[in-house]
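Give me structure tokens for this 568-residue protein.
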Amino acid sequence: MNRIDLHAHSTRSDGTLSPAGLVEYAVQKGLSAIALTDHDTVDGIDEALMAARGKDLTVVPGIEFSTSHEGTDIHILGLFIDHHNTYFQERLAKFVESRISRNREMCKKLQAAGIDITYEKLTAEFPDSILTRSHYASYLLSHGYIRNYKEAFALYIGDECPYFVPRHKITPFRAVEIILKGGGLPILAHPFLYHLSDTALDKLTGDLAQAGLAGIEVYYSTHAPADERQLKRLADKYRLAVSGGSDFHGDAKPGLDLGNGYGNLYVPESILDGLVQELARRQETPPDFPFRKILFTDLDGTLLSDNKQISDYTRGVLDDWCRAGHRLVFCSGRDINSVNDVREELGLHYPGMFLIGSNGGRIYDCDRQEVIYKASLTKEQAVAIIKAAGEHGIHCHTYTDTHIVAPAETEALINYTQIIHTPVIIAADIGAVLTDEPSKCIAIEANDPAKLQRFRDHMQAILGSDIDMIVSSPYFLEFIPAVSGKGNALRKLCETLGIPPAHSVAAGDQENDLTMLQAAGYAIAMANGTDTVKKEATVVTSFDNNQDGLAHALRALLPDNNAENPHP
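Here you go.
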């Protein structure tokens, strides 16, 4: 039976053979099929397909996505993809932008360390390539800065090295979705390279299968027969197809050859037949995978326009989002009553909706009409924070479950309550009014940002580790329990609902949204957001909060994302 190899790289990413050269080598080796699976690019596929014309070799269009899951790098292969698919090409363009930004920063760091390198010099040395750390290692070696590849990773570009700049990666669940929308089969690559426990690997495989994973790479260059048997059992358990390949990179991986890996790899042609059958089955009857997501959206500056409204277009997208079976959560720094006021004023009443207020301090179940989670400061902490703010000439207030509690009616409070309509109690003795432990305190200074910064610096020096400070706008400094935060609330609600955080989507624009974006499987930063927020994003919206930016980003995640949806 003929041998195949469904995992190989070319010079378009970090291999050393061109796509055409890879085809010629495969023919020379007597292989009947190969898959070109360059990292995060499909630029070499047309060249490979052209080179294979008239030859007894099948070229499978593919890709390899580098993703991150719970701190571990996970690679997802896409086989049989429609590499000219518009949606697929748009997603890849985002990855290219991310890589370019990362590579420019790494070159600056290496240059500052005395290495004669610029982004332009690196790209000139490796034209038409998706730059990876292997290219940096090759550059350093060819220019005499290192003696071997291992030294490059030990001294310059390893994860713990001072010159390394990590690239923001999507989750494996998002990669699966992108591949499926691109008409391909998503495959979990080289599962044992992640060094997961058997239990963790089983859970990851099961979760990915639920999200639409089609297969698992059973045959691989470093897999022993026992490894292959274990992975076949895993494939049977979750009804996954079996795939296999060498992960050939040419001279970049010495000793690892196309088709037979380190000498013992054998991927039979029947594996390709099984994958073709799986592809045909899915094309004939698209699987009803539960792509159920949960959206955690900030309000001010994200969902809401500057006049605190949403357009008919945004309302329609939210309707479509919930009609598709996805959940909606409002997640705000506002107190929970104010968040609910926004919901009522907008008339947004969707089944299974939740509200998160006080930057994660309260979670409210709209169906049950009750708070299901609280994280609080102590009364003593709230009193001390408000007293310290007063000593710095800054307004600060806290909350009961129903009211704002402030020591005096200040201009800052009056302006605040024109937006936040929660009723107010004025009391010189804050502690006497607080019947329950408060969710947060908020200091407000609209006229002198430097004054607020001095107060922040002062409090940074005296606060304990159980209280966090966050900036929710240029004028607001909030004090919340360290166990609170939007990210913790996201994880808490996902756990309560039995939804993997990887299936969550988060959208925000300010510093207090950072932990939420970091915790979510897919992070949307608004065009009007801060630079720090944008760096954490999977995608930055093309429009701001006054131009339906969030709605357009959500539309791309809905099943009918290829439909015409002109901006109103």
